[in-house]
Design brief:
The structure is a single chain. The protein has 73 residues and is mainly alpha-helical. The protein contains 3 helices and no strands. The model has no long low-confidence stretch (mean pLDDT 82).
Length: 73
């Protein structure tokens, strides 16, 4: 009886430890300030305007541009 309660306690501890390990966000949060994000977004919008993009093409371009820090490829 004592052995099974020890095993149960160990399994419970492992389950709780594993749960908290998986709960952590592996991607680091962005360290950019709001102003930096706005500047990147504005740059991408200006580039999309210069290219005359509309609709899905514009949305795709802006998304890709923002991922690359405001630099179009």
């Amino acid at each position: 009886m004592m052995k099974s309660s020890v095993v149960a306690a160990i399994l419970l501890a492992l389950a709780l430890g594993t749960g908290t390990a998986f709960a952590q966000n592996p991607a680091a949060p962005s360290k950019m300030s709001a102003e930096e994000k706005k500047a990147i977004s504005k740059s991408c919008i200006d580039q999309a305007n210069a290219k005359g993009l509309h609709g899905k093409e514009r949305k795709h371009f802006k998304s890709k541009c923002k991922r690359h820090g405001g630099k179009a490829e």
